[in-house]
């Protein structure tokens, strides 16, 4: 069964694949290209880093164990240059939990465990890109929240009366979660919904990582004592915000694309 893409899309998504197994990487590349993606395959981390700096990509697929620059080192370098591009690690099933958490701390958006089916890979990519790059005329880059501004491009929180110096910072994954909650105040967000939107899958490892990040975000939100991130038992989470404190969007025209 083939997974087809929307033929109305005029500019296909560009994917950078960093995979040192050339034969397997070529198979993945051809499969993704068969459903409309443009794929560049690099066989080591250094080559992938050089390629990333030359062109614009919409998503990275990164093997962890690679010569010259491993997947963690590559992701760390990418995050310095671009805080929002989705990064998925291609990991072995035996990858330790500590390594998975390290990947999330570096800004990974999820793991795809080897061996995986090509159809599963197509579905994961399609679902994630549909959320991260929707068709719209403006791009959400921040929220004004009471006396504070959350800037998702700079990954910093500013006091509104002193925009020159940040009072807090957050990681790329934290930015995605904060942005998701701020866009849906006072609405219950189911746990599996949040897992799929942020990590692209609902499994044990993603759930554990989500718990870690939710704890960090609760600490971030303590600057506004009237706001709570409530856990609804067996359902999900809800950001409780008074009516006079509802977040206000900061947007830019979509043609001013993030680099």
UniProtKB/TrEMBL annotation:
CDD domains: REC_OmpR (cd17574), trans_reg_C (cd00383). One of its GO terms (cellular component) is protein-DNA complex. Signal peptide: none annotated. One of its GO terms (molecular function) is transcription cis-regulatory region binding. InterPro entries: CheY-like_superfamily, OmpR/PhoB-type_DNA-bd, Sig_transdc_resp-reg_C-effctor, Sig_transdc_resp-reg_receiver, WalR-like, WH-like_DNA-bd_sf. GO terms for biological process: regulation of DNA-templated transcription. Pfam families: Response_reg, Trans_reg_C. Keywords: DNA-binding, Phosphoprotein, Two-component regulatory system. This is Response regulator transcription factor.
């Amino acid at each position: 069964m083939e997974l087809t893409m929307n033929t109305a899309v005029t500019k296909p998504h560009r994917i950078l694949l960093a995979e040192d197994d050339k034969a397997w990487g070529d198979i993945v590349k051809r499969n993704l290209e068969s459903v409309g993606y443009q794929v560049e395959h690099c066989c080591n981390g250094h080559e992938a880093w050089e390629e990333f700096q030359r062109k614009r990509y919409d998503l990275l697929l990164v093997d962890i164990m690679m010569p010259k620059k491993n997947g963690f080192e590559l992701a760390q370098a990418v995050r310095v240059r671009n805080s929002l591009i989705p990064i998925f690690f291609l990991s072995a099933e035996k990858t330790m939990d500590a390594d998975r958490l390290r990947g999330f701390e570096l800004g990974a958006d999820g793991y795809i465990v080897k061996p995986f089916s090509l159809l599963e890979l197509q579905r994961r990519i399609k679902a994630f890109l549909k959320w991260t790059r929707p068709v719209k005329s403006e791009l959400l880059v921040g929220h004004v929240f009471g006396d504070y501004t959350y800037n998702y491009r700079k990954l910093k929180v500013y006091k509104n009366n002193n925009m020159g110096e940040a009072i807090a910072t957050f990681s790329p994954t934290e930015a995605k979660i904060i942005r998701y909650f701020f866009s849906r105040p006072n609405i219950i967000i189911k746990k599996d919904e949040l897992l799929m939107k942020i990590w692209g899958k609902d499994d044990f490892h993603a759930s554990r990582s989500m718990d870690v990040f939710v704890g960090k975000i609760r600490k971030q939100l303590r600057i506004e004592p009237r706001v709570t991130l409530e856990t609804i038992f067996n359902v999900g989470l809800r950001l409780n915000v008074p009516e006079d404190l509802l977040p206000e969007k900061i947007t830019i025209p979509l043609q001013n694309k993030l680099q």
